[in-house]
Amino acid sequence: MLTLAIFAVLLIMLMIDIPIAVAIGLTAVIFFVVQGQTSFLAMLPQRMYSGTTGFTLLAIPFFILAGNLMNCGGTTQRLFRFARALVGHVPGGVGQVSVVSSMIFSGMSGSAVADAAGLGQIQHRAMVDAGYKPTISAAIVAGASTIGPVIPPSIPFVLYGAITSVSVSRLFLAGAIPGVVMGAAMMAAIWLMAKPRGLPKDPRANLQEILVSFREAFWPLMAPFIIIGGITTGFFTPTEASVVATLYALGLGFCYRDLAVKDLPAILFTSLKQTCGLMFIIATANFFGWFTIFERIPDALIMQLSAMGASATAFMWIVIAIILVLGCFLDGNAIFLITLPIFMKICPLFGIDMINFGVVMTLLIMIGNLTPPVGMCLLAVESFAKVGIWNLAYECMPYLLAILAVTILCAFVPEIALWLPNYVMGAGS
After folding, report:
1. Do the beta carbons of residue 391 and residue 340 sit within 8 Å?
2. 196 phi, psi to nearest 5 deg
């Protein structure tokens, strides 16, 4: 009963537009006061501070900065041109290009919103110019942007690893195959819709255009290989990889002369605002997580599930249902921070691998990015497409269903995610 009351209060606060970070922290404060446990509020500053001091979390601001540097430079244009030369002639044309370019760009930014806001504008403009309806174009952009946090490197994987203490390197590798499958599912959806909806396509590019575009995109294409290669070989940690990604993006920008020194203050300030907002959520959510453990909410849920005779399969369906509902109201990072302190206690009881669970959770959160009213990718795309948030959400249904199908597949066939990390790094967690 207490659990339902806590989450009811939290959802009410969010529905009346109280900022996420404030709502999370205030919910914990309210219940401590109501239960006469105000002395524990002295722990609030300490818990908030400790929640933001993990070494792994240092990767988040640097991956954010790397994505912003690439968006402001000409990296995205070069990647898009190369992707267009490869698959622009496939049914669905520039729509297919958008998915492929997002898959490539995801190996640098690790952020769905960064992909939607940066590369997404180029994709949307190219599709509209090619004859796509603005709503169809915007939906493809929004759907494709969700690939970013699944294919490594990934900001959600960094956050998940920091909360659960599992290997971020394994999480990165675990996301690779599901991310590719996710991209393939979206390309299949566009291919199926191409003829009925009259989606145009480009003429087949000649070999010269492919080679020229590849040469221009070569160094940006090397970024994912450098980052993932460095992590898997042990040359640097995932946290250090974020710094490497930032320096690499900065070097590319200056070498291509797409960046100027005068651009850096604005980029740094934008990245700082994004980082501060996320870190504030992490800080308050850490206090909320401590509060749920203090109130023995995970233990209560474990007892309830045991009394119901729940299996691993039933638990996974419960998780899928909960995250799909929460995804309509909460930012993905907030969902991680609120639910994982509870779920991570239950997963071992059912023999659920925490690496695969991280992939499933991330995929579910990507669905949340496409569901109103708080779908972050929907909001990012709507900011420049101007097609209406609900029209955009409706048009995103095929891509949302594609992600859901991949999620269910990974949830119940964990080998899809676990094969690569086990092959590269050996069995274990």
Report:
1. no
2. -60, -35
Task: Look at residue 171 and tell me if it is in a domain.
Answer: yes
In a domain, 112, yes or no: yes
Q: How far apart are CA 29 and CA 13, in angstroms?
A: 13
Name the residue range of residue 186's domain: 44-425
Place of tokens 């005068």: 262
In a domain, 17, yes or no: no
Structural domains counted in the chain: 1
Nearest to 173 by CA among 225, 228, 243, 223: 228
Burial class (CB in 10 A: 0-12, 13-18, 19+), 306: exposed
Q: Quote the pTM value.
A: 0.80
* DSSP codes of every residue in 334-362: HHHHHHHHHHHHHGGGGT--HHHHHHHHH
Residue 405 falls within a domain, yes or no?
yes
- Provide the residue-wise pLDDT of the chain in tens; the chain has 429 residues: 666 787 788 778 867 777 777 887 888 888 888 878 777 777 778 777 776 777 777 887 888 788 778 777 677 788 888 999 999 899 988 899 989 988 887 766 667 777 777 778 888 888 998 888 999 999 999 999 899 889 888 888 988 998 898 998 899 999 999 999 999 999 999 999 998 888 888 889 899 999 999 998 898 888 878 888 888 788 888 888 888 888 988 888 888 888 888 889 998 998 888 788 778 877 877 777 777 777 777 667 666 766 676 788 989 998 998 888 878 777 777 788 778 888 888 898 889 999 999 999 999 999 988 987 667 788 788 888 888 888 999 999 999 999 999 999 999 999 999 999 999 888 765
